[in-house]
Predict the structure.
Amino acid sequence: MNAPAPSRPVGLLAELTHRCPLGCPYCSNPLDLDARETELPTATWQRVFSEAAGIGILQLHLSGGEPASRRDLAELVAHAAKLGLYTNLITSGVGLNRAAVTKLAEAGLDHVQLSIQDSQPQSADHIAGYKGAFARKVEVASLVTETGLPLTVNAVIHRANVRRAGAMVELAVRLGARRVEIAHTQYYGWGARNRGLLMPSREEAEAAIEEVERLKTTLAGTIVIDHVAPDYHARYPKPCMSGWARRTLNVTPAGKVLPCHAAELIPGLEFWNVTQHSLEEIWNNSPAFNAFRGDEWMREPCRSCARKSVDFGGCRCQAFMLTGEAREADPVCHLSPHHRIVEEILAEARGEAAEPGAYAYRRMRPLPRSRGERLQGEDLDISAE
Ligand code: SF4
Ligand code: SF4
């Protein structure tokens, strides 16, 4: 099968590190996190950013883990800014202080996306698995806006906070954000591991969708609301990544290049590494990138479906996770022969709050069960520097 000629990429997500002081149970990072010793050095990241600019990439998203865990973050931002890349820092806020925010702004950072876990401090700290995280984020939001950097607040919705989706939008307004992204949990990585505790009931999800859509009207002109609705409750799947290997690349802390952040869970894909290939070679020729380009790989019902150029058959990773075969239609689609799997999962969603300590918090290495079960901000071995 010949893959079609690749389009031009527009965005690069650089996962600078998997270290993160928080332990969000919905984190989409893989269960097997890259250790600090395997992280790419400064010079390699800078070379990757130069290659990205060379192939026409415009937007650089600096992510993790917590990107502020890297001491060279401002140096990396400065290099990207010099190349003319639009730099967006995706951060938990924990690990940033006034000096760090000022240094990043001076280095040429264009935008900050700050995550919040809930509008209620106690619940937010419980979800993050880190005492004091909420207060820290409020402080960082004000540092960011004082510095004059545009702020977006990101909130991931799940069972523990689904009733406060609207309150989180209102919190974003109070924090001075110009934009808020309300995204229902995607069940990859740690999110998949905790799915039973995170999935809201259909009624809860629908009420949250309604509330956020209403706020889009009432807060028009005050804040831009980007709303990523829960795909498990939709009729059709999301156009995952705007199509496999069509617009963006992800580089992991150790330099592996992925068409999407969850792609490693699909067995048999061959990923190339920036330490061995240029970004251009990877974009054009990496077997993993070419595996699901175009529509030759599709099975029915996608192959003959009119929507295949709209949603690209949905998410390959979700198709694999739920059916065991990545070429199947995303089972979220009501036309998929496997759609009943999603219906069964939804039927099991109890809509009750998770008991404190019940989450499998994201962490670098397994902790003994008795420690891993409690609120564990201080237990995490990945503190921001
Ligand atoms: S643990 Fe939370 S803050 Fe850290 S990378 Fe994952 S989602 Fe982001
Ligand atoms: S059958 Fe495939 S292409 Fe058609 S709507 Fe469903 S997932 Fe999309």
Summary: Residues 20, 22-24, 27, 29, 64-66, 92, 115, 362 surround iron/sulfur cluster (ligand 1) (CB under 6 Å). The longest helix spans residues 202-218. The beta strands are 11-15, 59-63, 86-91, 111-116, 151-157, 179-184, 224-228, 248-251, 257-258. The radius of gyration is 20 Å.
